[in-house]
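User:
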Amino acid sequence: MPVTDPEAQLPLTPATFHILLALADEERHGYAIMQEVAERTDGAVKLGPGTLYGSLKRLLEQGLVEESDERADPALDDERRRYYRITRFGMSVARAEARRLEALVRSARQKKLIGRATA
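Assistant: Predicted structure:
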């Protein structure tokens, strides 16, 4: 029986959350996911191919992402590339994880671990 409660998927691994974030605004192929994550994190997070494709396999199995047959411009694209998009359930899980992380950051601020008073 498939899991339908987004909260039951938490916590996500950092790689999984970064992949879902990369797919939240548009579908992408694997290399574009790696580039977007590296760019968004100023190079602090670099997903290797093994991590990326292993995570994508699990995300597909869990119904958080799906493969897309659409191509932005088929004439300019490599037909061997697989494109991925986040599912509705995947978006719900990503939002639940973002709320969970937001609550952790709020707690860290209250404990003065981060924020203006940490100098």
